[in-house]
Amino acid sequence: MKNAADVTSESKKHALDDQFLSENPWIWWRNQMPIVDRWSYFDHAAVSPLSGPAAKAISQYGSEASEHGDTKWPDWAASAERLRGQFASLLGAESSEICLVANTTTGVNLVAEGWPWQAGDSVVVPEGEFPSNLFPWQNQLAKGVEVRLVPRHGGEVRVDDLMARVDGSTRMIAASWVGYASGYRIDVAELVRRAHEQGVLVFLDAIQGLGVYPLDLRQTPVDFLAADGHKWLLGPEGIGVAMIARRHLERIRCGNVGWNSVKNAFNYASPEFELRHSASRFEAGSCNLLGAAALERSLDLFLKVREMHGDDSIASRILQLVSTLESSLNALGISTRLSPEGKHRSGIVTFEVPGVSPSEFRKSALKQNVVVSCRDGGVRASIHAYNNESDLEQLMSVVRQFLL
């Protein structure tokens, strides 16, 4: 049990943290990221480092599970419900529209497999999507569904092009918020508006954008959405989110059901198959409570910054760092694949160093404690809000060594 001195000390610490958060949120956030002690990390579009709070939550869960067993289950379940509420707050959605899933792929399949397709229906998908937002739709070919792939233009996904492939048979457009290789950020509001005008629904693969860029579903009524926690949200693998708009809940068949899909989930002795009237009906079995506990703590970082500095603050910070990197690369004669329009930019910067393969660059960067990826024939640096100019300089030093 904590004594009065411990409580007072914790109160003072929280007060100092709040002051630091208010005065310089990016240094405050950087202090929550143990990765910075060694690495200049630019691989958030692949797998992010865990935030310090998430790592502590995992450690705490492990201790509780080993020392107390399921006597702690109510606390863990409560954490998962708080996570559901955090996602609802982040999206401007209702908690009843939020489903906790294992990963983005699961969320895509909930819709692709659950929608009441008829032979002759069509779905429109941009070319160059990550396979998880392609294969589930192509898997509907057996039901007589046509998948219409729309070419990109230099990595850009143009709403005009998507809408040009829409006709009376089209039921859905499935697109990524941010391209995993190009970093191109689609205009979600325009896509939803124009699709809905034609009676077409929108599925958004949000894994490369959720948490970073504001999206209020009350203003931009995306129909379905899925994202994972292990990229920009700084959480562990194995926990993510799907959003099923309440207006569509009864239209999506619940194909994977279990004890947790129904209203009286704990009535094991006299089970009744009456599905929950919420997206949680798709959570058929036990939740990844360990992952939920960790992701809840990481999401708290995002929500605190947004609450104190505005919903656009994280995006603005990242795009500022992106512009700094772009200027440094351009000064050396290296171009990027960034869109010239700020509204289509993201934290993903893909570039090529003349005469150097991306894999060679990545290997050299790792030796200098800089982490990037190789995607689509280029070097992909994905910049987060806690990164700083010193991190960018570390990356640029790797670039310069190849130009000497």
What does this protein structure show overall?
The protein is built from twelve helices and twelve strands. It is of the alpha/beta class and 404 residues long. The chain folds into two domains: 74-303, Aspartate Aminotransferase, domain 2 (3-Layer(aba) Sandwich), CATH 3.40.640.10; 313-403, Aspartate Aminotransferase, domain 1. The relative contact order is 0.15. The model has no long low-confidence stretch (mean pLDDT 95).
Order of helix and strand elements from N to C terminus: HHEHHEHEHEHEHEEEHHEHEEEH
- Mean pLDDT, rounded to whole units? 95
Beta fraction: 5-15%
SS content category: alpha/beta
The Rg value, from CA coordinates, equals: 22 Å
Please tally the helical runs, counting DSSP H or I stretches of 4 or more residues. Answer: 12
**Chain oligomer state:** single chain
Which residue ranges are poorly predicted, with pLDDT under 50 across at least 5 consecutive positions? none
Fraction of residues in H or I helices: 25-40%
Q: What is the CA-CA span between the terminal residues?
A: 61 Å
Q: Spatial order of the strands in the main sheet?
A: 2-8-7-6-5-3-4
Question: How many domain regions?
Answer: 2
Q: Report on the biggest sheet.
A: 7 strands, mixed
CATH superfamily of the largest domain: Type I PLP-dependent aspartate aminotransferase-like (Major domain)
Number of DSSP E strands: 12
Which descriptor suits the 3D outline? globular
